[in-house]
Design a protein that fits this description.
Blueprint: E1 3-4, H1 8-27, E2 33-39, H2 43-59, E3 62-68, H3 74-86, E4 92-95, H4 105-111, H5 123-131, H6 140-151, E5 160-164, H7 171-180, E6 184-188, H8 195-200, E7 204-207, E8 225-228, E9 232-233, E10 240-241, H9 246-249, E11 255-256, H10 264-282
Parallel strand pairs: 1-11, 2-3, 2-4, 5-6, 5-7, 7-8, 8-11
Antiparallel strand pairs: 9-10
C-alpha cells in the first residue's frame, strides 16, 4: 500500500509561512494584492477563482477581480491588462486561460508585465523557469509538484525522474525545474515508444498527460514515487480521477498523490506564494526581497 502524498498538509504549512510574510509587508504599509482577469463564466475558472480567493484571504492577500464578457473585444482585454500593469498597488496578475477562441491569447499574454505574471503566462516567465532565474514565476501547478516532493522529503538530487507530458503548462516547465534540482529527467509524450518501459525505470514519475488513467499497473514498479497532476472525470462522469489508474498503481508503488487532494490542493497556495514574493520584490530595499 502506497503512502498517500496529500496536498493539504503542504498547503497548510505554506499558508502559515505566507501569512507571516504578508503581515511583515503590512507593517511596512504594503498590502499584497492579486488581480484576477477572467473572460466569461467557465465553470473550471470560477471553481479555481473561488479557491484562489479563499486561499488569498487566509494569507492576507487582497484580490481584485477584472471580469469581462465572453464576447469582449481584444481591445477591451488589452485595456484591462494595461490597467493592471499601471497600478502599482497590484503585485500579481492571474489571467485565466484558455481565452475564448476569437481572442489573440499570445498577444494578451505578451502584454502583461512579467513582474506581475504569477502563473507563467509570459515568455519572460518561461525564460526564468528554463534559465533558473528570478524573472516572473513558474506555473503554479508545476511548482506545486516540486513543493509537494520537498515536503515529503523525496530526494531529487541524482534521481531518475520521468515526466509524462510536454505541455508548456506542466510538462516542460516541471522538467526544467527538476533539472535545476539535479534530477536526471526524461520526458515521454504521445510519440514515445514503449512509455511503460521508461516509466518503470524511474525513481519518480510525474504524470501530466491530460488523459484519465494514462499510467497503469504495467508502467510502474515498487519503490517509486508517482505524482499525478491530472484532473479528469471518470468514464461515468461521476467522480474526479487523475492521469494515473489509482486503484491499479496504489498497491504497487511506494508513494502516490491522490486525485483529488494531491497536487491541486497545493496550487492555490503556490499562487499566494508568488503574489507575496512579487510584492516583496517590488518593495525590496537593498536586496531584502525573499525571491522564492
Amino acid at each position: 500500500m502506497a503512502q498517500l502524498l496529500k496536498g493539504l498538509p503542504v498547503a497548510k504549512g505554506l499558508t502559515l509561512q505566507l501569512a507571516q510574510r504578508a503581515s511583515a509587508l503590512e507593517e511596512r504599509g504594503v498590502t499584497p494584492t492579486l488581480a484576477i482577469v477572467r473572460v466569461g463564466e467557465r465553470d473550471d475558472d470560477l471553481a479555481y477563482e473561488r479557491g484562489a480567493c479563499k486561499r488569498c484571504e487566509s494569507v492576507g492577500i487582497q484580490v481584485r477581480r477584472f471580469v469581462l464578457g465572453a464576447d469582449c473585444t481584444q481591445g477591451e482585454l488589452l485595456d484591462v491588462i494595461a490597467q493592471v500593469n499601471e497600478d502599482d498597488s497590484i503585485h500579481g496578475c492571474l489571467m485565466f486561460r484558455p481565452l475564448p477562441g476569437h481572442l489573440d491569447e499570445a498577444s494578451a499574454c505578451a502584454a502583461l508585465n512579467p513582474a506581475k505574471d504569477v502563473d507563467c503566462s509570459t515568455a519572460e516567465s518561461l525564460y526564468g523557469v528554463f534559465a533558473n532565474e528570478p524573472v516572473g514565476f513558474p506555473p503554479c501547478t508545476a511548482e506545486a509538484c516540486i513543493e509537494l516532493l520537498d515536503h515529503y522529503d523525496i530526494d531529487l538530487d541524482g534521481a531518475n525522474v520521468v515526466v509524462v507530458g510536454r505541455s508548456l503548462v506542466i510538462g516542460k516547465p516541471v522538467s526544467a525545474m527538476l533539472l535545476s534540482r539535479n534530477a536526471t529527467v526524461t520526458v515521454c509524450h504521445t510519440h514515445t515508444r514503449d512509455t511503460g518501459r521508461i516509466t518503470r525505470n524511474a525513481d519518480v514519475v510525474v504524470v501530466a498527460a491530460g488523459h484519465a488513467k494514462t499510467l497503469g499497473k504495467d508502467a510502474v514498479r515498487s519503490g517509486q514515487t508517482v505524482i499525478d497532476v491530472g484532473i479528469n472525470w471518470d468514464e461515468e462522469n461521476q467522480r474526479l480521477c487523475g492521469d494515473v489508474a489509482f486503484d491499479e498503481v496504489e498497491p504497487i508503488v511506494d508513494a502516490l498523490t491522490p486525485v483529488p487532494g494531491g497536487v491541486g490542493s497545493v496550487t492555490t497556495a503556490i499562487l499566494a506564494k508568488h503574489v507575496i514574493a512579487a510584492a516583496e520584490r517590488l518593495h525590496a530595499s537593498d536586496g531584502e526581497a525573499n525571491l522564492v
